[in-house]
Design a protein that fits this description.
The structure holds two protein chains of two kinds. By secondary structure, chain A is an alpha+beta fold. Chain A has helices at 2-30, 60-81, 91-106, 116-121, 134-140, 170-184, 275-287, 291-295, and strands spanning 39-47, 50-58, 150-152, 155-157, 190-194, 197-201, 210-215, 222-228, 231-237, 242-245, 248-251, 265-272, 302-307, 312-316, 321-322. Chain A has eight helices and 15 strands. In chain A, the strands form four sheets. Chain A has an eight-stranded antiparallel β-sheet. In chain A, α2 (60-81) packs antiparallel against α6. Chain B is 23% helix and 37% strand. Chain B has helices spanning 3-11, 16-25, 43-52, 70-79, 122-134, 208-211; strands spanning 30-35, 60-63, 83-84, 93-104, 107-112, 115-117, 138-146, 158-163, 166-172, 177-183, 186-193, 196-202, 221-224, 229-234, 241-243. In chain B, strands 3-2-4-7-1-5-6 form a seven-stranded mixed β-sheet, with helices on both faces. Chain B has two domains: 3-146, no CATH class; 158-234, mini-chromosome maintenance (MCM) complex, domain 2 (Sandwich), CATH 2.60.320. Chain B is of the alpha+beta class. Classes of the chains: A alpha+beta, B alpha+beta. At the A-B interface, β1, β2, β6, β7 and β8 of A face β15 of B.
Amino acid sequence: MYVNRIGQHFTFSSLSAKTLCILILFFLFLIPGCRTGEKWHTSTFLFFDTVCEIKIFCSETASKSAEQEIKRVFSEIEGHFSPGIRDYASQPVLELFQRALNVYQNSSGCFDITVAPLSKAWGFFNGSLHVPPSNEIKALLKHIGMDKIKEENGSLVLLPGMELDWGGIAKGYGIDLASKSLIAMGIIKGFINAGGDLFCWGQNPDNQPWKIGVKHPRKRGFLCVLAVSGLGTATTGDYQRYFIEKGTRYHHVFNPSTGYPAKGKQSVTVIGPETLLCDALSTALFVSNKPEMIIEKYPEYGALLIDSNGRTSVIGKPYPFQPLK
Amino acid sequence: MDRRGFFKTMLATPLLAPLLLASKTTQGDCELYLIADSPQLFISFLLEELQKYGIFTGRNFTLLNSHPQEKELRQILSQKGWTYMQSPAMADIAISFSCLRQNALPSFTLVRKGEIWDIRSKKLYSLWKEMNENRSPSSCLTIASLKDRRARFFYGESVSIFKDGRRIETASLKENQSKSFSARKGKITVVVKDRKVWVSESSCSHKICLYTPPVSFAGERIICAPNHFLLEVQGRHSIDTVIG
């Protein structure tokens, strides 16, 4: 009887141990989705002359690796594409040039990375903002046009007086590279927002699509909210960098065919799978008089336009632009 | 059949409970119930009228289950400018189908927060009367769950100031105040007045921060990149980040 009780006792103990082992194995191996120590991490960096905000869901260690990776990618982008750097032969420059050339062709020249001489003449590079004489603008126009650039022996060849301004595409390119790296590292949700150019993936902390507030170009507060996931966005507006002279607003988005700031719109926000294209298309649509003709060449992209009278319209793919209550 | 009778008929629907549950998971603000063999003849008109009441906005729809008139519904809504969405999360209207236990006179009603909502505008009343009197009984119940997707914003409670990515100060928006901070390019002055915040002085070159209008809603921010300076209004957030 006693032995029997001891025997029963031992049997019970060994069962407990077995159950425990099974439970441990279950938690370790049978629930691959269960990730321990993961939480939301937010950080800000300064790149591209703006504040970059990153929010990712991962472990402490992964967060540190992700920060390092973003800094590495953004530093590399700055090294190739910052104003004043004359890199015409590196692989990223040649690759991005081809992408920019494609948008240049599809937008009938409304997006053009050769507008740097215009930005300089208007004082947007060094802060000496002024309206240049019309003959100076006219003379500069002969240095504008991506079709004038040739690629010879693995290098871009620019005509004398030409200069490149990668500001309308490089940030988006950097965000795409960085977000791809983070996703490859196993980070399943987050966003990278570099001064208004953004890519978000997965869900937000409330397990909903990411809610992105779009600033109103004139008034206080927001214009609308985007509820998106797995998409990039970029905005071009006349309110970001501008000066007012004799009652007229002059901003930094130039019409490459006139040499003057583009007219007719206050802001353009583009949504689509690649931030690079959102970035370039937002400029192209801002400049163009017929934005519908450009966006129809990009069926996966949609845009929210605000014209100079403050009227809002949506063109292209109808992404959820939530109006305000 | 009056509205009460109509609602009673609907409650007899065996699939109503799971469908209501389904419509709840899509966070619908109210449901439009439509009894008709050919709902495609009425739905776009009804939805247009309901939009005039401000019940919902947007023109995206989805179908939650298989509907006998699915092809026709999609066709008519697309023709009238509505866009079909695969994901219910992206849709302003989630349409579902249920079969009534017994045939009932064609009709429609709107249920908002569990209560029948009076929508007897002249146009809707004449449509309702026409359906009731001239159409043959039907067992086809179409439920359109309407979602108000308009975003809501909240005034902030405080402002947090970040320099070089680190929070250096948090100030209440309820107290009017002005404070200067040393920054990379010299100094930057922040003013809080009447629950609004703005930059009144900055040593940066392009003065974007100075031209930015005052901010007051939770989540709004002003950035001065040359000074590595950011201020953000804190409070009940309805957004995750800001662009533009």
